[in-house]
Write a structure and sequence with these properties.
mainly alpha; 4% strand; globular; 2 strands
Length: 285
């Protein structure tokens, strides 16, 4: 049963990465007017990553659920708008998905397979939306590597040295829209899960490498990231580690890949150069 849960979670993680890749080449998000993603935005993200868990641990559960729902519905609308085009149709789909999440949570319970199916599908779509927002807003491979390196340190401290991540997952485990892809492991109601933050870095890094260097660089990052995740999940299960800091594996891999491609290809491509290369690639197909 534990192996089945691991395979299901890995399947959703792979789906999120592949869908983010496919979406990136086909749809342009309606981005907010915040300018090009840069190092200042990396610093802002890191500040949010540090502060938000503390906020979720101190706020009443009903307000945490409300904030999670607001973020989830906003991300679903963001990803749906370029596909459905009509605003009313997008809101119908978004509200239907939100209603399905809340409905299955109340009717079937947060540990039921029905709820996990709906919830994991929504978190997968949220991952696709945010990963594309970051990549399409101009996040560079350098910025993603710096973010990965910083999160490696943070994940190590917050998970291994402090009980922060364990307390956070325990508090939000039974909330709708919890930022985790999971599945019941069959061990006294326990479940196996992968946090949205880890999933986001896993999905966005292939996109920024694709834009910065080439499709080959992006696809290589996709394969390396998913292979590393498989190793992490089964190693954590083998050693019976309850909360494993995934970024201590993913972060160094992100940094090393960026340095490799930078040394091999030099400067990152501009968005204009990337679009020209993508157009040439599509013409050859």
């Amino acid at each position: 049963m534990v192996v089945s849960a691991a395979l299901i979670v890995l399947g959703y993680a792979a789906s999120a990465c592949v869908l983010a890749w496919l979406y990136f080449g086909r749809h342009a998000l309606a981005r907010p007017p915040i300018g090009v993603f840069g190092l200042a935005d990396v610093a802002f993200l890191l500040g949010g990553i540090v502060l938000v868990p503390l906020l979720y641990l101190t706020l009443p559960l009903w307000s945490v659920a409300g904030l999670l729902g607001l973020v989830a519905l906003s991300a679903l609308y963001l990803i749906g708008e370029p596909v459905l085009r009509a605003r009313w149709a997008c809101w119908v789909v978004v509200l239907a998905l939100g209603g399905a999440e809340v409905g299955t949570h109340l009717q079937a319970g947060p540990a039921s397979p029905t709820f996990f199916l709906v919830h994991n599908a929504i978190i997968t779509l949220i991952t696709v939306a945010i990963a594309n927002l970051w990549a399409q807003s101009g996040m560079r491979a350098r910025d993603a590597a710096i973010l990965g390196a910083a999160l490696t340190v943070y994940d190590d401290v917050a998970t291994l040295w402090l009980p922060l991540m364990g307390d956070l997952f325990a508090r939000m485990a039974e909330l709708p829209f919890a930022p985790v892809v999971g599945w019941a492991s069959g061990m006294e109601g326990a479940s196996l899960g992968l946090g949205l933050g880890d999933l986001l870095l896993l999905a966005v890094f292939p996109l920024v490498l694709r834009k910065a260097y080439s499709r080959a660089a992006g696809l290589t990052a996709l394969v390396i990231g998913l292979s590393a995740l498989v190793g992490v999940v089964f190693l954590a299960g083998l050693l019976q580690i309850e909360v494993f800091p995934v970024m201590i594996v993913l972060g160094p891999l992100m940094v090393s890949q960026h340095l490799w491609w930078q040394r091999r290809r030099g400067c990152e491509r501009t968005t204009w150069q990337y679009l020209l290369a993508e157009s040439a690639w599509a013409t050859r197909q």
